Amino acid sequence: MGGRRGRIIARKDREHTVRLIRDASKEGAGKSEACKLLGISVRTFERWASGSLQDLRKGASKSIPRKLTEEERLEIVQVSCSSEYKDDTPYTIFTNLLEQGRYIGSISTMYRVLKEANKIHHRENKHPGTHHSAPEEAVAFGPNQVWTWDITWLPTEVKGIFKFSYNIIDIWDKKIVGWAVQDRESEFYAKELFEKTLAEQGYPGVHIHSDNGNPMKGVSLLAMLYERGCKNSFSRPRVSNDNPFIESFFATVKGSVKFPGQFKDLEHAREWMAEFVNWYNTEHRHSGIEYFTPAQMRSGEFKRLVKI
Question: CA-CA distance, 31 to 278, in Å (whole number)?
Fold first, then answer.
């Protein structure tokens, strides 16, 4: 058999070797001499004799008892792609099968097999996810060119009950050009606010950006804005960075030391917001406009102050 380094010895030959050495020992032969004669060490014989017959050397072929057969892999793919389970995740399939007393593989195994078969995505009937491109950047070079708006919740003293603050900000001078506080989110309240604000500002053909909420995409609101010559754009779903100006304003509102935290009723919320908007427009020195106030930017006073 030889004992050259690196030689692969089949399992059946190892079993036969163990039997030969044991038989020789029974006849009075020394174990070490028998091992030497057959080209193995005593330590190797003892390991083989204990039942560890696998070749543990680096690079040797290994037997993996729990490795899936091709039939088992095919069963996982077929079951997962069946009409009953094609809309479900491996976790759901695993749970349903287990309730039926059936096991075709662990959850991680099912994920691995489906991934290797390129079946982990879009086995279902629903449309695959779509990629939402970032909205086109709107740039303002003066007032009433680009507005952005959103609605934020105002907590009341009753847990779970909120009032809703509608706010429209001009991104050029950061002025709050329109606002309202209502008891619910509604496209009709939004339409009412925009009709009033556009009239106050002389009906500019302004670009209006907003999030993707239902009030922002209400048919009546969009139809009215279209008739007024306004252009709309919307943030991507769940991407707040697409609407940073209004998000920054909301942070200023709720981070104010004067913010009450909770409002008694709708009238209280409206009174507080009226005072805050007035302060924000006329006294707040905004870092985004070189620490001028929105009113100074809107009136053009900032030009005189820059020259001083």
Answer: 100
Q: What are phi and psi of 26, to 5 degrees?
A: -65, -30
Cα 23 to the center of its chain, rounded Å? 67
Find the mean pLDDT for residues 280-293: 91
Q: In one letter, which amino acid is 15?
A: E
Q: How far apart are CA 175 and CA 246, in angstroms?
A: 11
| Residues 239-255 pLDDT 10s | 656 678 899 999 999 99
Rounded CA Rg of the chain: 38
Tokens at 165, concatenated: 């603050």
> Do residues 283 and 252 make contact, with C-beta atoms less than 8 angstroms apart?
no
CB 133 within 8 A of CB 139: no
Whole-angstrom Cα distance, residue 136 to residue 242? 10
CA dihedral sign, ordered 87, 89, 90, 92: negative
With 70 as the cut, is the pLDDT of residue 58 above it?
A: no
Note the pLDDT of residue 4. 45
The full 3-state SS of 128-156, as one line of letters, equals: CCCCCCCCCCCCCCCCCCEEEEEEEEEEE
Structure tokens that stand for 55 in this block? 């070749």
Tokens of 284: 């707040």
List, for residues 107-161, the tens digit of each pLDDT value.
888 888 888 888 776 555 555 555 555 556 678 899 999 999 999 999 999 999 9
Terminal C-alpha separation, the chain: 101
| Residue partners of 51: CB distance under 8 A and separation at least 6 | none
- 198 touches 228 (CB < 8 A): yes
Q: Reduced to 3 states, what is the DSSP secondary structure of residue 168? A: strand
H-helix or E-strand spanning residue 234: strand 231-234
C-alpha angle 279-191-154 in degrees, rounded to nearest 5 = 45
List of residues 6+ apart from 125 with CB closer than 8 A: 86, 87
Amino acid at 135: P
